[in-house]
Design brief:
Elements (H helix, E strand, L loop, with lengths): L4 E5 L3 E11 L5 E11 L9 E6 L7 H23 L11 H29 L1 H7 L2 H18 L2 H8 L3 H12 L32 H8 L1
Antiparallel strand pairs: 1-2, 2-3, 3-4
Length: 218
């Protein structure tokens, strides 16, 4: 509804805004704002634009919403890594306290991996680590060598590290990161996603059988 207007820039691209009207099959309407970020660089899936629908008042600028969405996405990525890399979600049904404990352990482990990444970025450069180093392989290595380290490293080592100041600990981490072989943790980039054909909506027959769709693709 109305013209698209420019609303400045964020760190990732140009921001635009347009008033839109959403309707459903029963004729209900919802008026909101569509915030569009035209990216300077494409996403991993090759998209050059991101659209965000919001009912926030006009006092909240489009650029503010775009930045908030960008920060929100980093949180979602963190939760994805917690679930897939650190196995923080219990597969079977568990008592709430057990599930919460597993999640808390996953968050603690994620902080450890983030600290390792920070040391690698400081030594090898932010762009190289962000683009080339796989957090999955880092997590796999920690899980694989943990027991060996428990045997090889004396208990007094932990006490010494706990007594270090933050600056001394950061210096110690940088020293280790200098000897890291980043090729062992190389990301394996995937190709672009194939666009799936969307089925046409039929208000008289809204249900689509998954079995029939699969049968038609054979």
């Amino acid at each position: 509804m109305g013209k698209v207007r420019s609303c400045g820039r964020t760190e990732t691209g140009q921001v635009f805004e347009q008033r839109v009207r959403l309707t459903d099959g029963e004729g209900n309407e919802l008026f909101c704002r569509r915030i569009t970020i035209k990216l300077d660089k494409p996403t991993r899936d090759g998209d050059w634009e991101i659209h965000v629908l919001t009912n926030l008042p006009a006092t909240v600028s489009a650029a503010t919403i775009a930045r908030a969405y960008h920060r929100r996405w980093t949180i979602e990525v963190a939760f994805h890594k917690l679930a897939t890399i650190l196995d923080s979600e219990i597969d079977t049904l568990a008592y709430p306290k057990a599930a919460l404990f597993g999640f808390a352990v996953g968050v603690a482990a994620y902080n450890v991996l983030s600290t390792v990444q920070g040391a690698l970025r400081r030594v090898h450069g932010r762009e190289k680590v962000q683009q080339d180093v796989s957090m999955y392989y880092l997590g796999e290595e920690l899980a694989g060598v943990y027991r060996g380290l428990q045997i090889a490293i004396p208990e007094t080592m932990g006490e010494e590290l706990s007594m270090m100041s933050p600056s001394a600990f950061a210096k110690w981490l940088k020293g280790i990161a200098e000897h890291a072989d980043l090729e062992k943790y190389q990301k394996q980039p995937r190709g672009p996603k194939k666009k799936q054909k969307k089925e046409k909506h039929n208000k008289h027959k809204p249900h689509v059988s998954t079995a029939r769709l699969l049968e038609g693709r054979r």
